[in-house]
């Protein structure tokens, strides 16, 4: 299980505990990383204090004041040095993993870049990929991103959807209008 955007480690710890699998986690923000490091202590979880992307470089992400109430998980990539912190960015492919069944990606809009930096890993292991898409524009970005990623893989992308709990089926193309309606329905049902 590869956990990109580990935050404080709740998904990493849950997967390791309930599934029993080894976990590799990536958390760039130093405050989240420190808490995650405490939460994963003495578990089969390797934690990197780094972001993931399509390039190995230093990037800047938003900083936050833990004394101010808000969503501490939203540390977006930024260009401005004001109220930001510099972090390392790695490509998943450079890890040369021996196995990879699931990748969870929650990186505030950088999901496609993470997948581009994991193309070899994805082609080799064909893992299940979970990623976050929150905003209204993300429906279009999700569709465009999946098409772009499909092209990046050489034209082939299979997505497993759930027919019901525990029963999946594979699709090889997406009808954008149906996907948009489904996202709208899920959003409406969740309110």
Percent range of helical residues: 25-40%
Quaternary structure state of the chains depicted: single chain
Mean pLDDT: 84
- How many individual β-strands? 11
Number of helices: 6
Q: Write out the strand line-up for the largest beta sheet, numbering strands in chain order.
A: 3-2-1-8-9
Distance between the termini: 30 Å
Shape: globular
Radius of gyration: 17 Å
Biggest sheet statistics? 5 strands, parallel
Strand content: 15-25%
Sequence of secondary-structure elements: EHEHEEEEEEHHEHEEH
Return the structural class. alpha/beta
Low-confidence stretches: none
Descriptive notes:
This protein is 33% helix and 25% strand. It has a five-stranded parallel β-sheet, with helices on one face. Strands 4-7-5-6 form a four-stranded mixed β-sheet, with no helix packed on it. The longest helix has 16 residues. With 191 residues, it is α/β, with parallel strands linked by helices. The protein is built from six helices and eleven strands. β2, α2 and β3 form a beta-alpha-beta unit. The two termini are 30 Å apart.
